[in-house]
Amino acid sequence: xxxAAILTAFAAAAWxxxxxxxxxxxxxxxxxxxxxxxxxxxxADRLRxxxxxxxxxxxxxxxxxxxxxxxxxxxxxxxxxxxxxxxRFDALLPYPTTRLLETAGFRATLAEPALTEDPGTAIxxxxxxxxxxxxxxxxxxxxxxxxxxxxEDYALLDSNGISVKGKIVIARYGRVWRGLxxxxxxxxxxxxxxxxxxxxxxxxxxDNPYPEGPxxxxxxxQRGSVMDMAIYTGDPLTPGWASEPGAPRLDRKDAQTIxxxxxxxxxxxxxxxxxxxxxxxxAPEPWRGALAITYHLGPSVVPVHLQVDFDWxxxxxxxxxxxxxxxxxxxxxxxxxxxxxxxxxxxxxxxSGAAAxxxxxxxxxxxxxxxxxxxxxxxxxxxxxxxxxxxGSTEWIEKHAQELDKTxxxxxxxxxxxxxxxxxxxxxxLERFLxxxxxxxxxxxxxxxxxxxxxxxxxxxxxxxxxxxxxxPLVALGSGSDYVGFxxxxxxxxxxxxxxxxxxxxxxxxxxxxxxxKFSDGDRKYSVALTQxxxxxxxxxxxxxxxxxxxxxxxxxxxREADEIRSQIPPTSGVDLxxxxxxxxxxxxxxxxxxxxxxxALVRGTISSAANExxxxxxxxxxxxxxxxxxxxxxxxxxxxxxxxxxxxxxxxGVREAVEAKDWAEANQQAQRLAATLRSAAAQIYVxxxxxxxxx
Length: 696
Prior knowledge:
Blueprint: H1 2-16, H2 28-39, H3 44-54, H4 64-79, E1 83-92, E2 95-103, E3 106-107, E4 131-132, E5 137-141, E6 143-145, H5 151-159, E7 168-172, H6 180-187, E8 192-196, H7 199-202, E9 224-225, E10 263-266, H8 268-276, E11 304-311, E12 314-324, E13 329-339, H9 347-369, E14 376-383, H10 386-389, H11 391-399, H12 401-407, E15 408-414, E16 422-426, H13 431-439, H14 451-459, H15 484-489, E17 494-499, H16 513-519, H17 525-543, H18 552-566, H19 578-604, H20 609-620, E18 639-641, E19 649-651, H21 653-660, H22 664-692
Parallel strand pairs: 4-9, 6-7, 7-8, 8-10, 13-14, 13-15, 15-17
Antiparallel strand pairs: 1-12, 2-3, 2-11, 5-11, 12-14, 16-17, 18-19
Helix pairs in contact: 1-2, 2-17, 3-9, 9-17, 18-19, 19-22, 20-22, 21-22
C-alpha cells in the first residue's frame, strides 16, 4: 500500500508538469490518479476471452450468429452494470444464391478451402465469397484487364484503343476502394466486373502465404460491399431515414447506391486461367502482377460467362447500446463504437476492436464500483451491418438525429486493430487532445516510449530534416467505418483509432483467431494499449471541466487545403476565391481569440455548460442543409469521402472536386458556399469564446 501510494504521488507530480487540455491544473492530480488506475486494469487474458467467444463462428449481419454475438455482448454489459439495450433495424442485406464464372475449358472454384492447421477455417456456416450490392445478372462477354480499375487505368486503355463497353472487366484489388472498381467499369459501359487478389499485392510476392506466413493463400478471396457509399451510407432503400419495421422504402431499382452490373470477387488461383486467355497488347510494367504469366490488356477471344444472383430480402440488424449516465451534464454524450458483424469469423475485423471496447467497458464498470461517476454520459455501441455499408450505425444516427444534434459531443471509433504504429484520423479540433492522450500512454512495442513518440519516430525523414514532428497529425476521415454518419451527416467531432492490422487475410475465411494469434497481436499487448488509449480519452472527455476542442489546428488545415486548391486553378478559369480567403482570414482571427479565452477560463477553473455546448456546435457549423453537390446526405463542408476515391477523404470537397473536374462555374458556386459556412463557423467560435467568460 505504501509503495502504491508513493507511485501514485510520483505520477501525480510528473503529470502536474504536463497539462491536460480541458482540465484545470488544480484538478489534474485527481485526473491522473484515476487514469493511472484505469490503465493498470486492462487484461490480455480477458481480451483473449472476448475474441475467442465473438470470433468462434461466422457471424455475418442479418444472421442468427450475429444476433448471438449481440446477445453475448449485451449480457456482459448488463452484468457490468450498464443500462443496455439492443436496438433492431430491418435492412436490405443481400445474401448470394448463385455464383458462376466460367470460360471454355475452365470453371472457377469460387471457394476458400479449409486448412488442417486452422480449425477456424473449416466451419460450414461461412458465407460464400461475394460482393454485396452488386446487381443480379447473367452476362457472357469478352474479358478486358483494367489493372486496379482507376480513372488513370481507363485512360491508358483508351490510349490503346481498347473499349470495355459491353465487356466484362477484371481488376485487381488494391490502390483504390473496391466499390470504385465496378462503379467506374459501369460508367465506362462494362457489362460485368471481376475483382481478384493478385499475389503481388497481398500474396506470396510479399511474404509466405497462410498458414506458413501472413499473406493470402492461392484460393483466398476478399469479400466486401461495393455499395456506392460516396452517395450515402446505410440501407440503400431508406436514405435519410431509419430502416425500422414498417418504414417506407424505395424500390430497389431506384436505390442510387446499388450497382447496375454483376460483380464477383475471386482468388488469384481462379483469376490466372482467365488472365492467361487474354490477348491484345502486353500490359505495361506497372500493370503486371506476380503471376507466372504474361499480362495482356485483352480482350479475350473466347467469352467469359459471369452469373450472380442474391436473396434480396430485408434482414434484422442488432445494435448494442450501453449507457453510463452522467452526473452534472447528463444530456451531453461521449460515444464510443465498434462494429460486431463480420464477413466470416472476423478475428481481426472487427473483433480485435470489439474486444477492446468490451474491456474498456469492464474497466469503466470497475471504476464505477469504486465510486466514480462521469460528469457527462458515456455511450458504448457495438454496431451491426458495418461490413455491408455502415448500415447499423447509419440507421441508428438517422433514427436519433434530433437527439444527437442536442447531445452528441464527441464520437470515438475503433475497428480492426493489430500491432505496430498507431494510426489515427479525425476532426482537426481534437488533434491536440489526442496528442496528449498518446503522450500519456506507453507504446507496447518500444520500451520507455509513448505512443506519441513512436508515431513521431516513424514520421522522421528527409521531409522533416530528420527531426520528429511535435505532434501526430490526424488524417482527414473519408469513409470506411462507423464514424461516417456522426461526422459527415450530423457534424459530431469524431476520431478513428487503431494499431496497424495485418492485411493478408482481410475479409477472408482466414481471418481467424489462430491467424491473429500467430501473425498479429498474439500476446494482446497492443490490444491492451488500445484499451488504455480509449480509457484515457473517454475519462478526459467525460470528466474534463471543458471539452478539449482546439480550433487553431482547424484553421491551419483549412489554410493548407485552400492553398492546395488554389494551386490547381489556372488564371484563366475565372474562379474567384477572394470571398473565400476573406472568410478564412476571419476564421483564423476567431480561433486565436478563442484560444486566449479558453486558456483564461481554465486558469480560473470555471467553465459553463453553455461554453461546452457552444464549442461542440462548431463542428455542426461546418454543415450545410443542402449538402454536397449530387449527394446531399453528406453535409460537412470540410471533409467527405471523394466521389472517385472511395475511403480516402477529400478536404474542402465541394470546391476541390469542382476544381478537379474543371467545372469552373461550380467551383465558384462552391467557393461562395464554403465562404458562408466558414463565416458561420467563425461566428459560432465567437459564441463559444464569449461563453467561456461566463461562470457556471
